[in-house]
Design brief:
The structure holds two protein chains of two kinds. Chain A has no helices and eleven strands. In chain B, the strands form two sheets. In chain B, strands 2, 4, 5, 9, 10 and 11 form a six-stranded mixed β-sheet that branches. In chain B, 0% of the residues lie in helices and 58% in strands. In chain B, a hairpin with a 2-residue loop joins strand 6 and strand 7. Classes of the chains: A mainly beta, B mainly beta. Chains A and B meet through strand 5 and strand 10 of A and strand 4, strand 5, strand 9 and strand 10 of B.
């Protein structure tokens, strides 16, 4: 296991379509985070999981956004009815529990909504 | 929640010079402050971090200082090299959410 893996790396979709991104964390990391990064900005926290439990989701941008981590391993982030404003880089990170120190980020999925 | 301010937004230095990036945070309970380097098309990579029980930490050409009273911390890069050119982000651990809050980034350009 060499790091956090995200798939796909790039996604172009038409406005109104649904998209789903996948994140595979480092295997021994039980915390998993989703962030969004727009051009010229720092990553913006969306949600996180400890094992399969979603402990914080109040920062998900709207009810069109949802995330799952069904077995405490990989996670998916879904955006329904995409809008042009959803165009961004979606980053996943993982860490060991007990404080969230030492995040390791994946390379991200770049979403373009046309 | 935590709020992190970072400046400057861009920084250009000559190779061999030093670079300093500064951040302030709002949550006095925050106790962990990492710095990330992001290259084009890649995710942020942790380069150094500091916890609130120390005031300074150094790793080769990189150092971070923390002033808890003033709620600010800084990244210092000495003997800069062209490969140091990237976007650098500071972050602070939001004690409520146990998730990192990031600054807006500093684009560092090291001129050969």
């Amino acid at each position: 296991d060499t790091g956090v893996s995200q798939d796909p790396r790039h996604k172009i979709t038409k406005r109104g379509q649904n998209v789903t991104f996948r994140c595979d964390p480092i295997s021994e990391h039980n915390r998993l985070y989703w962030y969004r990064q727009t051009l010229g900005q720092g990553p913006e926290f969306l949600t996180y999981f400890q094992n399969e439990a979603q402990l914080e989701k109040s920062r998900l941008l709207s009810d069109r956004f949802s995330a799952e981590r069904p077995k405490g391993s990989f996670s998916t982030l879904e955006i329904q009815r995409t809008e042009q404003g959803d165009s961004a880089m979606y980053l996943c990170a993982s860490s060991l529990s007990l404080g969230g120190y030492g995040y390791t980020f994946g390379s991200g999925t770049r979403l373009t909504v046309v | 929640g935590e709020n992190v301010e970072q400046h400057p937004s861009t920084l250009s230095v000559q190779e061999g010079d030093s670079a300093v990036i500064k951040c302030t945070y709002s949550d006095s309970a925050s106790n962990y402050f990492p710095w990330y380097k992001q290259e084009l098309g890649k995710g942020p990579q942790l380069i150094i971090d500091i916890r609130s029980n120390v005031g300074e930490k150094k790793d080769q050409r990189i150092a971070v200082t923390l002033n808890k009273t003033a709620k600010h911390f800084s990244l210092h890069i000495t003997e800069t090299q062209p490969e140091d050119s990237a976007v650098y982000f500071c972050a602070a651990l939001d004690t409520g959410r146990r998730a990192l809050t990031f600054g807006s980034g500093t684009r560092l350009q090291v001129q050969p």
